């Protein structure tokens, strides 16, 4: 994320939503997306950074609610959609080359290399050909996205008493 590591641990349900957590520069937040609504609960440091100490004190432990597809939390909403992630990848890659079978973190995979930047998509070589990881190429575009636990049951539920962000000023 603009050269700053972003850590995201997310479980998604295609067409329904996602749940997980994220952090950047020590600013941590929990995420739940159900349909077109996103909920976030920031750490005190997260709220303080974005809204100031007084607001952080008021929001301590509270969830915020907003549209996932537009408005103030749209960028966070984009993180919660595998379809959006793969659409972005498809739209911005160069020529692809099959580098053949290899191993990634002990798993047999097929490596697909983007010849324009050297990044690689690793796809499971046995069983269903699910994506295993995307590993960045050029230094300015480095990073890793790991995919695991495909088809695992994920429970999604809206947090109680979330504050609608549209009701907040500023």
Features:
single chain, 170 residues, alpha+beta, 6-stranded mixed beta sheet, 5-stranded antiparallel beta sheet, elongated
Description:
- The structure is a single chain.
- The chain is of the alpha+beta class and 170 residues long.
- Helix content is 18%, strand content 39%.
- The chain contains 4 helices and 11 strands.
- The strands form 2 sheets. Strands 1-2-3-4-5-11 form a 6-stranded mixed β-sheet. Strands 6-7-8-9-10 form a 5-stranded antiparallel β-sheet, with no helix packed on it.
- Strand 8 and strand 9 form a beta hairpin.
- Helix 1 packs across helix 2 (53-59).
- The protein is elongated.
- The model has no long low-confidence stretch (mean pLDDT 87).
* Tally of alpha and pi helices: 4
Biggest sheet layout: 6 strands, mixed
| Shape descriptor | elongated
Based on the structure, what is the oligomeric state of the protein chains? Answer: single chain
Radius of gyration: 18 Å
Q: Regions with pLDDT < 50 over 5+ consecutive residues? A: none
Number-wise, the strands total: 11
SSE inventory with pairings:
Layout: E1 6-13, E2 17-24, E3 27-34, E4 37-42, H1 44-51, H2 53-59, E5 64-67, H3 74-79, H4 82-91, E6 96-104, E7 107-114, E8 120-124, E9 131-135, E10 144-146, E11 163-164
Parallel strand pairs: 5-11
Antiparallel strand pairs: 1-2, 2-3, 3-4, 4-5, 6-7, 7-8, 8-9, 9-10
Helix pairs in contact: 1-2
Write a brief caption for the model.
The protein is 18% helix and 39% strand.
